[in-house]
Amino acid sequence: MSQEVKIVDAVVIGAGFAGLYAIKRLRDAGFSVQAFEAGDGIGGTWYWNHYPGARVDLECWDYSYSFSSELQDEWEWSQRYPSAQELMAYLEHVADRFKLRQQIQFNTRVEAAEFIEADNLWLVRTSDGKTRKARFLVPATGGLSVPKPPEIPGIETFRGEAYHTGRWPRQEPTYEGKRIGVIGTGSSGVQVVHSLAGKCKHLTVFQRTAVFVVPAKNHPLTPEMRQRARATYAERRSLSRITRFGIPAPMANESALDATPEERRAKFENAWINSQLLGFRQCYGDILANDESNEMVAEFIRSKIREIVKDPETSRKLLPYGFPFGTKRPCLSDTYYSVFNRDDVSLVDLKSTPIVRIVPKGVETSEGLIELDMLIYATGYDAFTGALSHIDVRGVGGRKLSDKWAAGAKTYLGLVAQGFPNLFTVTGPGSPGPLANMAMSIEQHVDWIADCMTYLRANRITRIDADKGAEENWMQHVQDVVSRTLYEKANSWYRGANVPGKPQLFLPYLGGHGNYRKKCEEVAAAGYLGFVLTRETTATGMADKAASRIAAAGLAGGAV
Ligand code: N01
């Protein structure tokens, strides 16, 4: 006899920043929630990225939940930029404080999800062999959760220890006395390099593209600093909700070209000294839009690299060229460049000395074998679409989501992919996501989703899908906005350029967090404009449904 499958209102996938808040917010709105997490603990990104030096690059006051002033007041951040370990402790505290663990089944991966059109339900299959039904599917799987392999021949032959930064082992490896190689110099690689330099016998950094690294100016927080931050939290959060990057720092309007060389130098020096991730981008309004203005920042940072790195050859190799500053995420580190002055750190520039293959004893380059005891792959992620493409998601007519996205991901507002009703992508492709403060992006999306589900329930609407025209217009708008910037000049993960064979389409929305939030609010206030809502009319209790096109086809995303 077949077992009755329990129906929940929402299945949430993931127990990181997004998953935890989704559980809380949906439960508070009266929905039943079942969450699944592949790991054996809370934390998402911070659970998997436990590598040496893993640390957020936004200040703790911004990269944290804003939904509870009690939580804000009681949590004692220890550093300006918290480590992965501290962020894990914070998220565990959140899970306990708001009693979220009871909704989460750990060590369970969602393997497949199929939309049952007749019932407007998702049938969700998990790695424990079970199946659940859900009215809504809320993947909170993160934009950077599927590690990208390095695509280098011979990886499997290496006899030493090998780790990807995005899947760091729970049991911390030992580093003392070891010859360690790091492949990749993005945010993860830079943090590993500055953390392991001096802690191992020798560190070899394999660099394919030199990056812009600006000082972090990380420091411990005193009780007075925490007190000051708490006193201004409300103001800080309100301002963040309307700014471009979701942090309390509005963009400048003036052009770098209108300033004198002395004025520019003073501004850039100030950004270098009082740095934070967005410091340079905020100096002038056209840093990310005008080649000449951008090059002024780029050259300033190159001048700092020349000053810091003593060996001229190493210094030259570390100078970033070939893409505008800011169009690949700049990295934060107080010591990255100076570690190359150490005798026990060496740099291999893969442009002039490519890797031929990985061999049992280490890495064979065009100039010979580098023997290693440990290899660390800091080679990034299959961003935005990787996590959902790894789940067999099938929507209307059995269509696979990975097929719909085969030529580039499409959604309406980064929230719903047409043909996949009742599935909300938290910070999905087409939303600002990582181009704004992720914590704020997540809260904004989850609040919108919970309000939407509440509206649907109140109006007996059983299905929400994106209108095809609205989706197309929105994705066109995403492309139009990026075309007015310099971002497309970089081979970045923002446009899938880091994954061989992936369609290249710029996926995050660059219109700014504040504008985007306003747009989402307007869409909701207008009765979910650009969405197709279907109301159930089951007077007889039979499958008697009438499609009520509350939002007509063709209603576009429109420019913001
Ligand atoms: O990944 P990346 P990441 N051979 O894709 C190189 C967030 N994050 O994990 O540039 C040799 O940026 C690749 O070279 P190239 C943050 O948003 C935040 O570092 O493609 N090299 C590049 O150098 C960030 O942007 C924090 O030529 C290969 C590197 O590997 C995002 O996550 C910390 C290679 C990958 O850099 C991703 O950062 C960590 C190959 N076959 C991450 N394949 C903070 O908050 C790739 N590379 C501080």
TrEMBL record:
Matching Pfam families: Pyr_redox_3 (PF13738)
Keyword ATP-binding listed: no
InterPro entries referenced in this protein's UniProt entry, alphabetically: FAD-binding_Monooxygenases, FAD/NAD-bd_sf
Gene3D superfamilies: FAD/NAD(P)-binding domain
Family membership: Belongs to the FAD-binding monooxygenase family.
Record's keyword terms, sorted: FAD, Flavoprotein, Monooxygenase, NADP, Oxidoreductase
Needed co-factor(s): FAD
Stated name of the protein: NAD(P)/FAD-dependent oxidoreductase
